[in-house]
Amino acid sequence: MQDVFIYDAARTPRGKGRKDGSLHEVTALRLSALMLDAMADRNNLDGHAVEDVIWGNVTQVGEQGACLARSAVLASRLDERIPGLAINRFCASGLEAVNLAANQIAGGAGRAYIAGGVECMSRVPMGSDGGAIAVDPSLAIEQYFVPQGIGADIIATKYGFTRDDADALAVTSQARAQAAWQAGKFSRAIVPVLDVNGLTILDHDEYMRPGTDMQALGALKPSFKDQGEVMPGFDAVALQRYPELERINHIHHAGNSSGIVDGAAAVLLGNAEFGRAHGLRPRGRIRATAKIGTDPTIMLTGPVPVTQKILAETGMQISDIDLFEVNEAFASVVLLFEQAFGVDHAQVNINGGSIAMGHPLGATGAMILGTLLDNLEQEDKSTGLATLCIGSGMGVATIIERV
Amino acid sequence: MTDFTMTKDGGIATIIWDVPGKSMNVMSFAALDLLDSLIDDALADSAVRGIIITSAKTDFAAGMDLNVLAGLKEAAGDDNPAGPVFDGIMRVHQVLRKIERAGMDPKTLSGGKPIAAVLPGTALGIGYELALACHRIFAADNPKAKIGLPEILVGLFPGAGGTTRLVRKFGAMAAAPYLLEGKTLAPAKAKSAGLIDAVEADPMAAARAWIDSATDADLVKPWDAKGYKMPGGAPYHPAGFMTFIGASAMVGGKTKGAYPAPKAMLSAIYEGAQVPFDTALKIEARWFTNIMLNPSSGAMIRSLFINKGALEKGAVRPADIPDQRVRKLGVLGAGMMGAGIALVSAQAGIEVVLIDQSDDAAAKGKAYSAAYMDKGIKRGKATEDKKAALLDRITATADLTALQGCDLIIEAVFEDPKVKAEMTQKVEAIIPEDCIFASNTSTLPISELAKASTRADQFIGIHFFSPVERMALVEIIKGRQTGDRAVAKALDYVRQIRKTPIVVNDARFFYANRCIIPYINEGIRLVAEGVAPALIDHAAQMLGFPVGPLQLVDETSIELGAKIARATKAAMGDAYPDAAVDAVLFEMEGQGRLGRKAKAGFFDYDETGKRQGYWAGLADHYPLINPQPDLLEVQHRLMFVQVLEAVRALEEGVLEDIREGDVGAILGWGFAPWSGGPFSWLDILGTPYAAERCDQLAAAHGPRFTCPALLREMADKGHSFYKRFGQAAA
Predict the structure, then answer these.
(1) Phi, psi dihedrals of residue B692, rounded to the nearest 5°
(2) For A192, which of A3, A203, B365, B682 could close a Cys bridge (C-beta 3.0–4.6 Å)?
(3) How many CB pairs (< 8 A) connect A and B?
């Protein structure tokens, strides 16, 4: 088995995932090619330098359809002999791309890969690719399908997290993100989005709401209460899977759930030989990867069992991990992770997360892996774990360490 | 076979449905073949310009003969029954599709002959599905007629193209009330809803006129026309996507996953919506076959249709007793039960004397009927005339002499043997010698009450459930000396008031309460053990019970539960097994948490009596155990505890017929209707597995789960209840 190193990690700023978002005018193809070009430029990737581009993306229809990875390679200045593979593990697609690439390299199938992902949520709406699990009665009824937000609220109900717990986490996320931007902690990772003429379209995360406090969040209405209790009544479905609960406590709203945004991210992975050949110094090493399936109704508990699994497989303890990135899809996902492992919030998402900056589905996994590496360097720590909850009940995790 | 006949007159072939010897047409496979050949004849006959399909009876048709459907799978013997069932259903599709295409060229959509359905009255199930395959549906202006697809109510779904055609006609959302709820409509409303095309004083004439003017385009169904798009969108159309996500959630949420038919129907709709029409019919047939072969559907048809009907028609009535229809009924006690009994009896055209201690109290009981009719008038379901006629039939008085000339008395006074005995004697002195005397007691042994009567052979129990006007079951209890004429009287009366009777022998709590009380008690035991109250009630609801045991005891009153517990304990002495239940019950009672009427019970209630949540204090008294038991364990405890009582009732001869045990359980206390009743459920489980579960439950939870000897013996022999006890029934 070959050691797998991270040579570079970068991301675009995140644009609001709406028609008035700055990146709404930018195609998924262009955003993807921009990141591939950044990898090539920053690391001198001329010719057939990498084996493949593994590109995560959730809603693979329209401009994000037809193996966007291949189109992105062709639209970038990468060599056409690099093929391109589009993958979809929902919200963990970006991290799964990294893990797949790492394991290919470890197994000897190529020296280097670019892994990452993209999601233009303002342009290709979430859910517009259909999907049997929500719609096909033979699965939806048997598996007690409910939307993610209901799953997040089940977590809160089952594990006893209150609206205040969730709002407090959101306030912290906003404050940390703001402080991190002010301190320039994302400067190494950010690749500004430029237009065809080199003019800047977006150079910062525009979704953030600095200064958000408990009072501001307190005014927000729960997002999933109506679809849970009234139409079409998902709570009645959820309670069949969790009959010990009397009712679902709907604590999540727009302010303590991840933001809908546009963005892309890429990670350059390779073995030692690749680094030597290109004169690149490795920044970190992939220590382990893991994935797991979980109950699809509560859906978003995956980070807990996948972390248990990765620790067991590596023989590590939770205390061996210095910093965590647990995707803030919903506040309760992070609260559950911290409760399950007794981890202090001071170690988790230390520069804010998706609640503050947004969650571009297919890209986020690669983004938080890059952030984790930056954080380890800036804090001078050695070992970090990134994990995300995933639609339909899955979890993915990666442990990295500095070299 | 003369179920269908055809006449040709003036270029129009009229096919008349008239099943010999039946008051209502039902479809059989032989009749379908005949219909097919008549259609062939008419389509081939160049002198025929159009076809009318109608009925010679008051109604069009009640549907498929469910006995025939039940027979389809039995005909397969040891082979996989799916083959013959699927082929049979595809044969239905083939004939109906032939009618729909009517000889037209499938490419040019021209050259077909117009086919009209003329419905003189009710058209249900395949009766409506046949009409739906025709090009235009005319109905007579018959307000009593019902039109629709009620299959879902007996555990099936419309399988003769009704599901596929209605969804393509209306869209999934708009078709849902007719398919998923089995909603039926009278012709005028069916017309405005689009189920039929026209309501006419002379529908035959209208159909002939339509045939004369029909063009090729009039014969092409939307789904056969070019560019057809499903109203509301197919599943992966943006609008349809949301509809279908919601549909699964609503069906799953509403049925608690307990019923297989709605799920199968939804799959047929979803999969069918994505393919051409003929493929959709094939998919519908596959899912319908799947449902036909599901033991739940067979059990539901057997209990809710075949056996319920048989009991209503007097299956257990003593044969040689002449008609005992009631002319004049005396109701003693004008409380909630008495008032309800007076109402349903007067509705059936029976003259009622409603007695209470004062004229005022009696009048109050009569006012219940007035209020009921007022509600009906408000909803457009009754008229002032009907109300007046109904109230005219009820004489409310304190004067017992008004009971002269009664042929049936139903006593519904306070549940006290002394009060009842006194009334019995006073009334027997006034009523005719041949008058039958019935008690509506729910707990007191009939044979004991009969001791107050000088005519014990004419004394019987007629046990109504509350609220009388809504509950379909009436439990008739034979005392030790009750004679056949009293039984026939009670049965004929129940038939008059259009309810479903079961006849049981006298024993503590008879049949229904004998099973309900342990069900409630098991729920309370689970609370005492530290099981989450939500898990207890949800477990019951997911079995198909309308409410869980804790909600049920709050509704029926904890005070009453405690009272019954004390009386039972006094009667049983040391053998009394329910101390664990009483500890909770008496604790609640002591705290004044008497149930909903006290606005405090296992639940908290607001000012208006609206249920809020489980009482938080419960967790203090009975801390939750961790981990909580599995859902299935809780469900099996709640099920077995009642089902074993039913088996014991059969063993002891309290129940004489398992059909009554099954039908009575579903109608009496909402026992898991999908299962077909306690005995059907045991058959679905298989008696060997049921006996094994008894052993496990008894070891874990106590002797109340001890396997009854009868069940043990059946398990050893691998018998099923319906094979062993159902022969007479079938």
Answers:
(1) -65, -40
(2) A203
(3) 95
